[in-house]
């Protein structure tokens, strides 16, 4: 409804076209556009649906790379983009708040919040010697399987485990 409302208010669609496009009742949309029922000020779309989709895509790609974001960090990134573009918004200092973020998450259920796990003690104290020993073990293991790493493209060898490669160890990241 919010997207349809703002599409009509921004003169990008007619009420009939917006109702059909966004799948909302035409009479309800008409009532909201014609101020029969007030629109709460927090329902204003600050970012376009396309901009929000870019954020969703970015969050999903980042999550696949095991790079999580706290809610506050996500809001700071959005603030930085808005400031760089010179856009003025209803946000305090151009930084989205909890209300906007909660609405964003409701509008995009494909964005799932998750807690990261704390990095284990062994992984936190990684040294060059430990890395070289690990590669030695990999080479030995591959040799036992009949693979000579001197004849194999190294890009075809990868390690996968259940924890991925977290880029921080605070245990506070989400998304």
Automatic annotation (TrEMBL):
<dbReference type="GO" id="GO:0003677">
    <property type="term" value="F:DNA binding"/>
</dbReference>
<keyword id="KW-0238">DNA-binding</keyword>
<dbReference type="Pfam" id="PF05225">
    <property type="entry name" value="HTH_psq"/>
</dbReference>
<dbReference type="InterPro" id="IPR007889">
    <property type="entry name" value="HTH_Psq"/>
</dbReference>
<keyword id="KW-0539">Nucleus</keyword>
<dbReference type="InterPro" id="IPR009057">
    <property type="entry name" value="Homeodomain-like_sf"/>
</dbReference>
<feature type="domain" description="HTH CENPB-type">
    <location>
        <begin position="39"/>
        <end position="114"/>
    </location>
</feature>
<protein>
    <submittedName>
        <fullName>Tigger transposable element-derived protein 6-like protein</fullName>
    </submittedName>
</protein>
<dbReference type="InterPro" id="IPR006600">
    <property type="entry name" value="HTH_CenpB_DNA-bd_dom"/>
</dbReference>
């Amino acid at each position: 409804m919010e997207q349809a409302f703002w599409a009509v208010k921004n003169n990008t669609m007619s009420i009939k076209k917006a109702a059909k496009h966004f799948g909302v009742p035409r009479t309800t949309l008409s009532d909201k556009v014609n101020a029969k029922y007030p629109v709460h000020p927090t329902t204003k779309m600050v970012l376009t649906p396309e901009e929000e989709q870019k954020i969703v895509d970015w969050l999903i790609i980042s999550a696949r790379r095991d790079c999580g974001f706290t809610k506050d960090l996500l809001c700071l990134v959005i603030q930085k983009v808005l400031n760089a573009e010179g856009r003025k918004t209803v946000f305090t200092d151009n930084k989205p708040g909890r209300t906007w973020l909660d609405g964003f998450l409701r509008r995009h259920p494909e964005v799932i919040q998750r807690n990261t796990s704390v990095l284990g003690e062994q992984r936190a104290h990684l040294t060059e010697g430990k890395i070289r020993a690990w590669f030695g073990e990999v080479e030995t293991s591959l040799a036992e399987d009949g693979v000579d790493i001197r004849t194999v493209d190294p890009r075809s060898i990868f390690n996968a485990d259940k924890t991925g490669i977290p880029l921080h160890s605070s245990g506070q990241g989400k998304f």
